[in-house]
Amino acid sequence: MTDSPITARGQDFAAWYQDVVLQGDMAEPAEVVKGCMVIRPNGYAVWEILQRELDNRFKATGHQNIYLPLLIPQSFLKKEAEHVEGFSPELAVVTVAGGKELEEPYVIRPTSETIVGHFFAKWIQSYRDLPLLYNQWANVIRWELRTRMFLRTTEFLWQEGHTAHSTHEEATEEVLRILDLYAEVAEDVMAMPVIKGVKTRAEKFAGALKSFSIEAMMQNGMALQAGTSHDLGQNFGKAFNVQFQSKEGKLDYVWQTSWGASTRLVGGLIMTHSDDKGLVLPPKVAPRKSVLVPIFRKDEERAQVMEIAKNLACDLGVHIDAREGMSPGAKFFHWERLGIPVVFELGPRDVASNSIVMKRRDTGTKEIIRQSEAAVKLSATLETMQKDLHAAAKRRLKDNTVLANSIEEVESLVGDGKFVMAHLKDDPETDARIKSFKASVRNIPLIDEYDGPGKCIVTGENVGRRVVIAKSY
Amino acid sequence: MTDSPITARGQDFAAWYQDVVLQGDMAEPAEVVKGCMVIRPNGYAVWEILQRELDNRFKATGHQNIYLPLLIPQSFLKKEAEHVEGFSPELAVVTVAGGKELEEPYVIRPTSETIVGHFFAKWIQSYRDLPLLYNQWANVIRWELRTRMFLRTTEFLWQEGHTAHSTHEEATEEVLRILDLYAEVAEDVMAMPVIKGVKTRAEKFAGALKSFSIEAMMQNGMALQAGTSHDLGQNFGKAFNVQFQSKEGKLDYVWQTSWGASTRLVGGLIMTHSDDKGLVLPPKVAPRKSVLVPIFRKDEERAQVMEIAKNLACDLGVHIDAREGMSPGAKFFHWERLGIPVVFELGPRDVASNSIVMKRRDTGTKEIIRQSEAAVKLSATLETMQKDLHAAAKRRLKDNTVLANSIEEVESLVGDGKFVMAHLKDDPETDARIKSFKASVRNIPLIDEYDGPGKCIVTGENVGRRVVIAKSY
Fold first, then answer.
1. Which of B425, B405, B402, B398 is nearest to B413 (CA)?
2. Do B32 and A141 touch (CB under 8 A)?
3. Which of B70, B73, B118 sits opposite A155 (nearest CB)?
4. Which of B33, B71, B94 sits opposite A73 (nearest CB)?
5. pLDDT tens sequence across B114-165
6. CA–CA separation, A101 and B330 (whole Å)
7. Contact assignment for A91 to B106 by CB distance below 8 Å
8. Interval B75-85: pLDDT, tens
9. Phi then psi for B300, rounded to 5 degrees?
10. What is the predicted ipTM?
11. d(Cα B332, Cα B347) in Å, to the nearest integer?
12. What digits encode the pLDDT tens for the residues A83-128?
């Protein structure tokens, strides 16, 4: 990593983001593989934390992990009409393997509903086999034209849940349970507020009855879809002939769900909290919560400082940055860019006065505390910082969410980087109007925090509540 | 999962293995994707445990996880002559993506040395950047003709370590450190004894100076290479121009290592411990250590038994199998096939006498113990079982390892399913002689447990010690 300056957010948000990602050791473009990135150590460590937080919750709600093949016979994609239409333009196709042209090409999975459908048909015969609650951690490829690290890459890492149920009601419960689970990880772990809602028909997953999403606001006011949960109805059940015998002995197609969250979450995290100095990580997702930088000039100072530093670091469970040939200033700069929540400084004067300096990454405030209090102060500070980051992001979301009552108003406000709440009919044609000025309907919130029903700003028809309109990644 | 019978090992070892894998809910063939498998819940849960055991050790020895692209430009493979020759026949090639023929095809990684070389050249300039100690958890594809679940599949999951060093000595230390780490996980966690050794020149990794392996003996006497660690020398450094400036200001190529262990470990685990009743899992790799099956006929028995069962299950931290409409016998059968180390039975008579029945999966022995002792007995039994399984496997390895002093003796003993120790020159031509009767030199053990130097049974030349010859997976 080179120590290039970080572009200010106000100057060029996209350049700022790229700088933060690079200088934070999160990722770098893999320019030799179109649209791909290398996930660097700090970025992968954050992803591992998110994986564990999600995986623990999946398991606690009865899901089991499995692993399905990366390659899917091309013909499988064609079995669900909407699905193939949605994914065809983005497929990477293996046509040669083992030195021979393949009779039937394979596609690299863009998502696994089709191969899941094939296996569900083998695994499910009776209501006794249901519900089937599976998840897989995997890589997928979608050949994207415009890519951006973490937010949209040709290959990405994700988890995809696939479940089968005997009733639509039970499937719907599952879809919403997972939406809540995603929202919980976003809010409580990532300190990233989200709006839970249902996607419009134009924006739903290719092959689903209904899609639900959590949408977060980035610091430039743009929306990021951070997780989706789909009610697949019986569409894939019919396409892959997944039937079960009910308690009453009748044959019926299963009701399926699928849901996913990806390395995109890491991008959302960065764009929610980081600042012009670089990466800011909420303590719960920081691979390293705290570091201690010892400061000394002369040799006799060194011995004194290092002795106390070692004792403290051991008590606090933190890493000492004892690198030689690097100034304390360079070290502070290094840890700041990596987003370490709390950095301690310990110099000869601190040693003499039994104190230590504690610096918070988000506010930049320094506090001189007694060494004996350091452990208690550290844990309290990490807790406060987690809450403060969440509160700040919540405030930003609130401050930048506005109401609009005409299409012109929507266009103008969306251009200012706002989440615009408007009454809009769920119809591909009204979605198209919004798309005409490069924004989109993000979702129709599950909870109405505004004024209930109203007239669609395009068609004049009555609709139940306002939708969220924004520019998005 | 259907409840088909399990073929006896003595009758047909390959059929037995397939039955154990299927009935143990470990995996099933993904017949629609050539040579691939679906990893089922029990199999994936075991893999997660192995991942954690390996990953903790990688991190404790200073390695960081990163993630590199799945796709590699085809031209990269050609930069290291031996490497391309070794892997070309096994490649899966993406020629079409995003609806267009690609100008340069991508291969799906069969392993990542080449793309690692590309990035190391970007990341390494000076001795200060070294050592670079990276690992990635990933899927890879090698188009294999003859496949077998877990042991050899077209796609498999693994970790691949990639490190760069400023001296050959340091790289060699790394290679051996990882070999030890693999052996520790095999022996201490999987209860699977292994022989650490260096591969012959004919068997080394394509592009390496030297390869090291751990080799385990399966119950039919066949060998399984369970992990490899490669000294790549400066081969990839030269191919990808990975140079660094030394402390003295001189430019030199880095010294690299790579090492991998895969889902193949799960296959080795199964073939080491399982029996004619199905899967046997050493407690340390069992996703669920113990289950309690309540037994009752009448309704009043049910209430009594379930109350005590719930209390005990809570104390012991074990799952109660309270499924309705399933006989206790069917439940025992179910858990036996899944390889649960200890199953408790609790019936009305046990309730009356404050006792409980504890059954060990490996020995099949039942013990009636007091309920108050159950927790202590369970943990002691799990510990004993772990040791006993390791001891049994060690004894089997010892009993089936024999010395041979002529090529004819080797051929005959290898046919009997033995590990045959013989003096053999490390030369592709002598390897070819061994291959002529469908066996191979597994490795040259690091520790000589036999009679030191001797004359090569093919060439008559002096060699330092005996090598391990066996049929292998």
1. B402
2. no
3. B70
4. B33
5. 999 999 999 999 999 999 999 999 999 999 989 999 999 999 999 999 999 9
6. 48
7. no
8. 999 998 888 88
9. -70, -30
10. 0.96
11. 14
12. 888 999 999 999 999 999 999 999 999 999 999 999 999 999 999 9
Of B364, B321, B324, B325, the closest CA to residue B345 belongs to B321
3-state secondary structure chain B: CCCCCCCCCCCCHHHHHHHHHHHCCCEEECCCCCCCEEECHHHHHHHHHHHHHHHHHHHHCCCEECECCCEEEHHHHCCCHHHHHHHHHHCEEEEEECCEEEEEEEEECCCCHHHHHHHHHHHCCEHHHCCEEEEEEEEEECCCCCCECCCECCEEEEEEEEEEECCHHHHHHHHHHHHHHHHHHHHHHCCCCEEEEECCHHHCCCCCCEEEEEEEECCCCCEEEEEEEEEEECHHHHHCCCEEECCCCCEEECEEEEEEEECHHHHHHHHHHCECCECCCCHHHCCCCEEEEECCCCHHHHHHHHHHHHHHHHHHCCEECCCCCCCHHHHHHHHHHCCCCEEEEECHHHHHCCEEEEEECCCCCEEEEEHHHHHHHHHHHHHHHHHHHHHHHHHHHHHCEEECCCHHHHHHHHHCCCEEEEECCCCHHHHHHHHCCCCEEEEEECCCCCCCCEECCCCCCEECCEEEEECEC
Give the integer Cα–Cα distance in Å for B211 and B200.
Answer: 8
Nearest chain B residue to A325 by CA distance is: B128
- Exposed/middle/buried for A101, CB within 10 Å: 0-12, 13-18, 19+? exposed
User: Which chain A residue's Cα is nearest to B116?
Assistant: A38
Q: How far is B20 from chain A (nearest CA, A)?
A: 18
CA–CA min distance A90, chain B (Å): 5
Check residue A2 and give its pLDDT: 54
Residue B254, exposed/middle/buried by CB under 10 A (0-12, 13-18, 19+)?
buried
CA pair distance A331, A345, nearest whole angstrom? 10
Taking only the tens place, the pLDDT of each residue in B33-67 is 999 999 999 999 999 999 999 999 999 999 999 99
Nearest to A70 among B45, B98, B141 (CB): B141
Would you call B95 and A98 a contact, using CB atoms and an 8 Å cutoff? no
Angle (CA) B185 B190 B193, round 5°: 80
**Residue A131 preceded by cis peptide, ω within 30:** yes
User: Has residue A348 got a pLDDT over 70?
Assistant: yes
Give whole-number Cα distances, A89 to A37, A73, A83, A302, B96, in Å.
21, 16, 11, 62, 11
| A62: Cα within 13 Å, side-chain hemisphere | 8
Given a contact cutoff of 8 angstroms between Cβ atoms, the answer to whether A104 and A93 are in contact is no
What does the block give as tokens for A457? 């700003």
Are A21 and A40 a contacting pair, CB within 8 Å? no
Q: Which amino acid is at A310?
A: K
Helix (H, G, I), strand (E, B) or coil at A394: helix
CA distance A471 to B2: 51
Give the per-residue pLDDT at B364. Answer: 97
pLDDT tens-digit readout, A299-328: 889 999 999 999 999 999 999 999 988 999
pLDDT tens sequence across B268-279: 999 999 999 999
Burial A196-230 (b: 16+ CB within 10 A, else e): bbbbbebbbbbbbbbbbbbbbbbbbbbbbbbbbbb
* Backbone angles phi and psi of A131, in degrees to 5: -70, 155
What pLDDT is stored for residue B2 in this prediction? 54
Rounded to 10°, the helix B264-273/B41-60 angle is 110
| Model confidence at B1: pLDDT above 70 | no
**CB A230 within 8 Å of CB A259:** yes
Q: Given CA atoms A24, A27, A32, A34 in this order, what sign does their dihedral have?
A: negative
Round to whole Å and give the CA distance between A386 and A106.
45
